[in-house]
Amino acid sequence: MKSLLEILREHFLDVEHLEKFYRFCVQGSSQTFGHISPLLRQKIIWNPDHWEICDIERTLTLRGTSCETRNTIILTTLALPENMVVLGINSLSEDTFAVYNHDKHVVMQIPRNAAPLFGVLCYGVQLVAYELCPSATTTLLTPDSRVWVSRRSILKNYCPGLLDVTASGALEAGESPLDGILRESLEEASLSDTVLHGRLYPSGVLSYVGRGGGEYGEGHVFALPEIDFCYHVGLAPGVAPVPMDGEVKYFALLTVSEILGRLRRSEFTPSATCVLLDFFIKRGILSFENEPDYIEIVTRLHRGLPYPTL
């Protein structure tokens, strides 16, 4: 069985690995907005009227001085039939990820299912719900404490059928993290604002670079940088999440010990793995005394990222 650190190394990139990628830039700015794999730099058709490529400095610069112009160029590039084939998508999603500069202004919006192409920083919200113990005198958990996990629908594009946290999803453009987690909790788990009010605990953020691109063959890697806003909530016995929007097949109460075993068997999504490890660290399950890779695990959950952030 793999160690927890081995699982993290398997699913996530070291930030230093990004030096092998092309920096995604925009005209008139020195900021880095994403990282594009060398494979896609070669396979995608980049119209020279819209893109400036420097192989020496490993930069791919989007021309255009306004958000609207950049959005149009991105959609035009992605809509080329040859590029759609390379990306393995039939259509572009209507949902978009907003890309921000250091002044926290939106510089462009990218269709959600095309974000891996540009390696742009995406934001998510994550909820871990656990069963409250009426006799507990502390917020720390024990190996027998129980946590609500979800089984993802097999129809999901990302990690179909794997285990996940209670509720999670992408933060929509212009949406606050609190509004995002309330929306996802209701849509995925039928947990209303009334149920969560006064119980929802914001537990900080996680930052990491996911590893994608395996569908293009061994050795081809995409950078998937992400920042997750995490929340915890204790639910009284008898209060249970219920699937609503079809993205979750079912919910189950698993003990901490069961979850740790399934994490080591790679039964959870990569992002859920990070969120649950962070949850167990903050709730006293994992510590320096019982986890030999404790410091490196904590460090890998909070990577410094070379992008402008919210």
Automatic annotation (TrEMBL):
<protein>
    <recommendedName>
        <fullName>Nudix hydrolase domain-containing protein</fullName>
    </recommendedName>
</protein>
<dbReference type="InterPro" id="IPR000086">
    <property type="entry name" value="NUDIX_hydrolase_dom"/>
</dbReference>
<feature type="domain" description="Nudix hydrolase">
    <location>
        <begin position="131"/>
        <end position="276"/>
    </location>
</feature>
<dbReference type="Pfam" id="PF00293">
    <property type="entry name" value="NUDIX"/>
</dbReference>
<dbReference type="InterPro" id="IPR015797">
    <property type="entry name" value="NUDIX_hydrolase-like_dom_sf"/>
</dbReference>
